[in-house]
């Protein structure tokens, strides 16, 4: 969130003032002096040229203040250098997308008194992204001090992006951003990241659909240049509708909690009996649904027993204490469920770790529906 220093603007203003004084001095030259010096050259073009030059310098110095969200860097990874074309920076669709994402971030972080003015600039050191994922996902990022050096900024950014990727549950092939590109303020990577977050957590506005950005791609070895197109958004009207529908869609557990709370204990008892039957195979058990599944261990164990495979000990924590370790376990369990063909329950990993009863019951019921034939 760097802005030009007042010193640079003050210096330019002083030079402009001196130029004006110079004009005034020239105009006061007496006719006698001019005659003594011989034929005089018209000073006006020189003065105007000097003023124009200073004005251009002043505009250049103030450009970061007025360029807003559209300041962008370069992607220099791999065999190419890539930079967003000037035409795309002026594209109303690209500007609208960037503006809506900026406003969404500012809405989310209102209570933290964080105001983003330039997407690429303000997200480059990881501070804003850290606050954003903490607010959206309830994540805990311990390394919160402001990073000054490039190395410390990248270390901070690495930690934050790891958390974001974890919560988004994206695989490596689906990640369209990295530490270097975000730190280098590469607009395309910033937009891909924010669109992914907005879709996952739900932005209360519909983003522009089918936004494409033209990229100038330069081959490093030959310096050959070509223009390629990068798709940033798809059918956002459908994405927005689907998210809203998922949020509004009610299931049996909504009905259970709202209309039949007297039957809640019976459902809890049945799911608890099923879980204990599974866990008893390795001398584990549970007595409190909210507490005993919040760290994810029992969920991972139940999936491994039901599917008949061994989950390596290094891939999850058997005695998690930190929030991140618990979240890792629950996310792993949800992924194992998905791989087994179990429809994704209407919940998040964060809600399980937070001991939300309805979310926990949904997960257990999904496992029960798939494997109830195993219990005799």
Q: How is this structure best described in words?
A:
The chain is built from 18 helices and 4 strands. A hairpin with a 5-residue loop joins strand 3 and strand 4 (225-231). Mean pLDDT is 78; it is low at 1-9, 21-31 and 61-71. A 4-stranded antiparallel β-sheet has the order 1-2-3-4. It has helices at 6-27, 31-37, 44-66, 86-89, 92-108, 119-122, 127-137, 150-168, 179-183, 187-201, 236-248, 252-259, 264-279, 289-292, 297-307, 323-339, 349-353, 357-371; strands at 74-75, 80-84, 212-219, 225-231. It is mainly α and 376 residues long. Helix 1 (6-27) runs antiparallel to helix 3 (44-66), helix 7 (127-137) runs parallel beside helix 8 (150-168) and helix 15 (297-307) packs parallel to helix 16.
Q: What overall geometry do the principal axes of the alpha carbons give?
A: elongated
Beta fraction of the residues?
A: 5-15%
Q: Which ranges are low-confidence, i.e. pLDDT below 50, for 5 or more consecutive residues?
A: 1-9, 21-31, 61-71
Largest sheet: 4 strands, antiparallel
State the oligomer: single chain
Structural class label? mainly alpha
Helix run count: 18
The N- to C-terminal Cα distance equals 62 Å
Q: H/E series, N to C? A: HHHEEHHHHHHHEEHHHHHHHH
């Amino acid at each position: 969130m760097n802005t030009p220093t007042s010193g640079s603007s003050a210096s330019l203003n002083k030079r402009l003032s001196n130029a004006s004084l110079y004009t005034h001095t020239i105009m006061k030259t007496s006719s006698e002096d001019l005659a003594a010096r011989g034929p005089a050259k018209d000073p006006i073009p020189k003065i105007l040229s000097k003023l124009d030059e200073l004005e251009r310098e002043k505009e250049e110095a103030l450009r970061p203040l007025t360029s807003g969200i559209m300041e962008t860097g370069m992607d220099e990874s791999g065999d190419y250098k890539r930079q967003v074309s000037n035409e795309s920076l002026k594209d109303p669709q690209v500007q609208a997308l960037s503006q809506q994402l900026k406003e969404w971030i500012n809405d989310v972080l209102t209570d933290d008194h964080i105001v983003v003015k330039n997407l690429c600039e303000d997200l480059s050191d990881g501070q804003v992204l850290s606050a954003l994922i903490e607010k959206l996902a309830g994540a805990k990022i311990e390394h919160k001090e402001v990073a000054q050096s490039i190395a410390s900024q990248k270390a901070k950014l690495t930690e934050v992006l790891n958390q974001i990727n974890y919560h988004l549950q994206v695989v490596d092939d689906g990640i369209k951003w990295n530490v270097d590109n975000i730190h280098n303020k590469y607009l395309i990577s910033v937009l891909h990241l924010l669109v992914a977050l907005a879709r996952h957590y739900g932005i209360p506005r519909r983003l522009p659909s089918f936004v494409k950005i033209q990229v100038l791609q330069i081959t490093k070895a030959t310096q050959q240049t070509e223009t390629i197109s990068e798709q940033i958004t798809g059918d956002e009207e459908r994405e927005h509708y689907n998210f809203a529908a998922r949020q509004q869609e009610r299931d049996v557990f909504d009905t259970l909690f709202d209309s039949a709370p007297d039957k809640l204990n019976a459902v809890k008892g049945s799911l608890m009996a099923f879980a204990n039957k599974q866990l008893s195979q390795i001398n584990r058990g549970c007595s409190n649904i909210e507490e005993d599944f919040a760290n994810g261990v029992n969920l991972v164990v139940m999936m491994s027993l039901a599917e008949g495979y061994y989950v390596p000990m290094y891939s999850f924590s058997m005695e998690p204490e930190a929030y991140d370790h618990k979240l890792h376990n629950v996310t792993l369990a949800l992924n194992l469920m998905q791989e087994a063909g179990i429809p994704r329950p209407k919940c998040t990993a964060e809600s399980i770790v937070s001991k939300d009863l309805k979310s926990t019951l949904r997960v257990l019921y999904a496992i029960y529906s798939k494997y109830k034939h195993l219990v005799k």
